[in-house]
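Researcher: Go.
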Amino acid sequence: MSASVNKKCFAPLTIKFEVGVVIEKDETGFIAYCPVLKGLVAEGDTEKEVKKNFSESFISYINSALKHGDPLPICSTFKYRK
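Model: Structure:
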């Protein structure tokens, strides 16, 4: 059985995530991670770079979760606007 979907019924949705991120200095630079998002770690030579790298990694993490139907982080604060 197949069904067609009228894509005009769906409006774009913006989801805002707010999660706690830990940034630590190590021997060679900085690392950033979110304790509730297992496996999500970023590195950078400077604090600015590690924040940028973490942001990019977080976006990839969320996109992957959405693509594969995985649950989104329950610790997040969700805000949306149409």
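Model: Residues 8 and 82 are 14 Å apart (CA to CA).
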